[in-house]
Amino acid sequence: MALVYCRQMSLKNNLAVAALLAGGAQLAVADTIQLKDTAAVSGKILAEKADALVVDVGFTVLVIPRNFITGVTKSGAGSAPTVAAAPAAAGQFYAATTKVSAARDVSSLVQQIGEAVVQVKTPGGLGSGFFLNEDGYLITNFHVIEGETEISVEVYQQKNNQLDRETYKQVKIIAINKFHDLALLHIEDKGAPKFKPVTLGSADALNVGDGVFAIGSPLGLERTVTQGILSTKTRQLEGELYLQTSTQINPGNSGGPLFNLAGEVVGVTNMKITFGEGLGFAIPVELVKSFLDHRDAFAYSTDNPNNPFRYLEPPSRTKQKPIELK
Fold it and tell me: What global pTM score does this model have?
């Protein structure tokens, strides 16, 4: 089978321990707080503040910041989440939702979110990407910009009922994660306008068979829309789990968004099987959120010894004194 590429220790660890201990305690009346990275804490909510929840987990009281919370189910309220994460603050880096939104037709969604999808060009080839916020930060695949120093981004913006193409050449690499094949870029051209961003959804909320669609530039054909279904959520390839989709993915789609039928990004397309049709793969959006939330840890710098573009000098051999024979 040939493939073509087209945690914070402190608070999180405490929350993980609390989840285990509270789960073992089986509190008689327990609310469930869903956290990022699919973890959960069970306990009694003592107070609900604007920026945090105060939770009694039996052996201690935790103050959980709302930006760690994806949902809350209160005891006696059924299984549906009754409290969502805190509303996004002004100036947030990206917009995200964990709710399952109503499906819409692909045609209207493309008209609404098509401007957020871009083409990423380098001397060695091209790929796709999408804006996270209006300030020009965008996601693409690491392999699209790997080893490249000249990067440009083509943006298609709606003006006077038609799409105008604009190329931006002052593009900076902000962060990279080559193991999950992700890269964060930023357009820094002077006079650049505000860009139209996407909303990050939830791959965990998808079911096998749900409809999905992609927008990208396969073989350089910009703004190509392909539609399919989610074939499986846990396809293991090269030690990583991917979303598998029947949506057509080809070279040039790499780094582009895979949307659910609510127009929310659920994955980043990056691979296909060479000899086969309808066998495309995407990086789950949960990995993208983790990458963005910890982007300082993945910051691109030529002085970073963990940077894949920098190779350290090998250690010099220890000089040994000759052994005297007696």
Answer: 0.67
Task: Please give the domain boundaries of the chain with CATH numbers for all domains.
Answer: 9-87 (2.30.30.100), 201-284 (2.40.10.10)
> Of these residues, 143, 202, 217, 231, which one is catalytic?
143
Give the integer Cα–Cα distance in Å for 54 and 156: 46
Helix (H, G, I), strand (E, B) or coil at 211: strand
Residue of 31, 42, 180, 181 marked catalytic = 181
| Residue 54 identity | V
pLDDT in tens, 133-182: 999 999 999 999 998 889 999 998 877 777 788 999 999 999 999 999 99
Q: Does the annotation count 42 as an active-site position?
A: no
246 catalytic, yes or no? Answer: no
CA-based nearest residue to 196, from 108, 133, 125: 133
**CA–CA gap between residue 267 and residue 255 (Å, rounded):** 9
CB 190 within 8 A of CB 184: no
Q: Which residues pair with 128 in a beta bridge?
A: 119
Q: Is 293 a catalytic residue?
A: no
- Per residue, the 3-state secondary structure of 19-34, as one string, reads HHHHHHHCCCCCEEEE
What burial letters (b/e) apply to 22-55, b meaning 16+ CB within 10 Å? beeeeeeebbbbbbbeebbbbbbbeeeeeebbeb
pLDDT tens by residue, 252-286: 999 999 999 999 999 999 988 877 788 999 999 99
